[in-house]
Predict the 3D structure of the following.
Amino acid sequence: MSDQDQLKALRVRIDSLDEKILELISERARCAEEVARVKMASLKPGESPVFYRPEREAWVLRHIMEINKGPLGNEEVARLFREIMSSCLALEHPLKVAYLGPEGTFTQAAALKHFGHAVISLPMAAIDEVFREVAAGAVNFGVVPVENSTEGAVNHTLDSFLEHDLVICGEVELRIHHHLLVGENTRTDKISRIYSHAQSLAQCRKWLDAHYPSVERVALSSNADAARRVKSEWNSAAIAGDMAAQLYGLTKLAEKIEDRPDNSTRFLIIGNQEVPPIGDDKTSIIVSMNNKPGALHALLMPFHENGIDLTRIETRPSRSGKWTYVFFIDFVGHRHDPLVKSVLERLSQEVVALKVLGSYPKAVL
């Protein structure tokens, strides 16, 4: 058989497989519609249906990656199935998700990575606005940044948890690649200022010191706002990601300029529903302690004695008094695990206040 005949046979086989894939996706979508009908039929008077189940979505993606035999990698397979699930869920009930805007931010990219592109994503001007929209029921979920591997905690998010009673339903980890972007009218030899978010400028500090040491660095509310400004200016550049570059039609003058190649940001999914365990969970709490010697030691000992892995601990000023603090703690396990439940009960007897922000599946990717 000639090469052309082999190619023709392979293309016929691919066409046949595509038809089968389409048939299976359509069958899955019909099942999703039936799930919605069953949920609606089983509601009691006054109850609201719960269409999106974070633990179910996380389990499906983990299961798919476990049985994946290639040649596509786990990340690509998970991305494909996320989009299928997103589109099927939209048939049941389109989700509204608020994120720290404007369009083109890394937070929007995190929202789409977690929920897929079939959601209705709504940009908010500030982190606290995202919290307020979720608390008011105007959206189903919110997505906010909480920490960066280079620059640490996002304090606005931590402070918002002190003011709002919302539940953490999930987390997203996003690799952050920064690019130096210019517009079609930019005179690249005359760049006199570089716009970006303060965190992004900090994450690219060494690169900027080496390549643009005398250029003014202007911090804005978001990378997307930086990209928008550059589009209409001839003497400026922006530091932003792929999404902003595509949205505003900018060109990459330099790619991946972040100081650390493993630069990542963790985002939290906030909502109003508690999430059951899946066996690979994390829990976040806020603890307020009396300001006395050994307070932090007493706080951490129950975790150490029970072999519970702490993944993060942050301190923020308390709103209740001068020179008093609260601790934000993340650890492995679910609040309903017997061991975790025992530790939380012990802590509640020793601290001034304990608030469980939520237990949720670990980030899939």
